[in-house]
User: Which sequence fits this backbone?
């Protein structure tokens, strides 16, 4: 791996950490609005990345994907990650069923919103002829969309599993116990044939829709 690959990998990692920080901030902010101040009191309603770092999901797994994928023929280039889950006290929520779902979907919604903003910035950069900025903004937008759709997978501790838990009536205790081994389940799911191509396809398709919406030239 040469120095340019290392720099590119570090930039990609910084993008991931920033996007995860906004993702978790959105969870905490919506929880606060729904009546639960647990995350705010624990310092999680913050844009400080340090308070959201999960050793496996934010550090180990993403760095392995970034720095092994370019040099190993057996590992495809694919980056995902997650941060430390925002604590939620269901007893503090005004409408536990509805609010827990809203809190869970706030993270993916933030990633979708960020992608829209980033594609908008990329379009402005294109007008001014800044190709490097266009590439950076679109790369970050693509990663934000990937995080959005990845987190909707209904596997604990991902956000989609909160929605599923409410609809099937799973107890909170059972769900928490499943989350303890969630990162193993996530890795297994990502290695099921077809999962990564579907995520990549949905991400790429949504990115191209946003680019068309902002008036990017065809076949850009």
Assistant:
């Amino acid at each position: 791996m040469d120095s340019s690959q290392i720099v590119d990998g570090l930039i990609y990692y910084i993008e991931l950490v920033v996007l995860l920080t906004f993702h978790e901030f959105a969870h905490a902010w919506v929880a606060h609005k729904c009546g639960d101040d647990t995350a705010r009191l624990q310092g999680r309603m913050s844009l400080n990345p340090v308070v959201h770092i999960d050793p496996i999901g934010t550090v180990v797994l993403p760095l392995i994907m970034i720095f092994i994928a370019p040099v190993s023929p057996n590992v495809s280039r694919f980056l995902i990650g997650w941060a430390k889950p925002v604590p939620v006290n269901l007893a503090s929520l005004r409408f536990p069923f509805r609010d827990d779902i809203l809190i869970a979907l706030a993270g993916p919604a933030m990633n979708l919103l960020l992608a829209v903003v980033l594609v908008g910035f990329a379009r402005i950069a294109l007008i001014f002829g800044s190709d490097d900025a266009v590439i950076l903004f679109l790369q970050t937008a693509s990663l934000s969309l990937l995080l959005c759709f990845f987190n909707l997978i209904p596997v604990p501790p991902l956000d989609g599993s909160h929605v599923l838990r409410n609809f099937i009536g799973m107890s909170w205790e059972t769900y928490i116990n499943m989350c303890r081994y969630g990162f193993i389940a996530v890795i297994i799911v990502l290695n099921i044939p077809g999962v990564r191509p579907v995520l990549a396809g949905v991400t790429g398709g949504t990115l191209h829709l946003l680019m068309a919406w902002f008036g990017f030239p065809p076949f850009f």
User: Anything to note?
Assistant: Confidence is low (pLDDT under 50) at residues 71-76. The longest helix spans residues 96-127.
